[in-house]
Design goal:
Layout (H helix, E strand, L loop, with lengths): L8 E5 L2 H11 L5 E5 L12 E7 L1 H5 L5 H15 E10 L5 H7 L16 E7 L5 E7 L1
Parallel strand pairs: 1-2, 3-4
Antiparallel strand pairs: 5-6
This protein binds S-adenosylmethionine.
Length: 139
């Protein structure tokens, strides 16, 4: 996103390690901010963001005990920190029916649209022995 010109981005994760690693990769880029924070309890003023993007964090939280309750708390926070005409984009591996029930809630006045896209991820990992592994998933 940064390379495509979106250069005022706040990235949030409650994992200190994740934030530390991301800071090493992109912390020197102006306008790119990495914050250690619980998405269910954000210390960000209401109406701050034009757009919020979830890339599989909802998917991961739903694997935990009480996941559904946690997702509602998270969505309430996202709804709060978005500007009145702000957009929430959720990228998920799940079938849309499994996410729409969270989004179609009386607490959120969202116009919802669903798009199915082909996803292509490439993760490159280097081991100590310098062997290179490539994992590719198409959905
Ligand atoms: C599947 S990963 C996605 C990471 C990132 N969105 C990406 O695409 O690389 C899920 C991340 O959600 C973070 N996470 C889970 N629950 C969270 C919460 N309540 N607040 C902040 N981060 C959370 C985890 O630490 C983990 O890094």
């Amino acid at each position: 996103m940064y390379a495509d010109g979106f250069q005022d981005i706040v990235n949030i994760d409650f994992s200190r390690n994740a934030i530390s690693e991301m800071n090493k990769k992109g912390g020197d880029k102006p306008g790119l901010l990495f914050m250690e924070m619980d998405l269910q309890d954000m210390t960000i003023p209401s109406g701050t963001f034009d757009i919020a993007v979830d890339k599989a964090t909802v998917d991961s939280i739903l694997c935990a005990d009480g996941g559904a309750r946690q997702i509602h708390a998270l969505l309430k926070q996202i709804y709060r920190v978005l500007k009145p005409k702000g957009t929430f984009m959720m990228l998920s591996y799940a079938k849309s029916q499994l996410r729409l029930n969270f989004l179609k809630h009386k607490d959120f006045l969202w116009d919802i649209s669903v798009e199915t896209c082909r996803m292509f991820f490439v993760f490159d990992t280097h081991t100590d022995s310098k062997t290179k592994f490539r994992y590719t998933a198409n959905g």
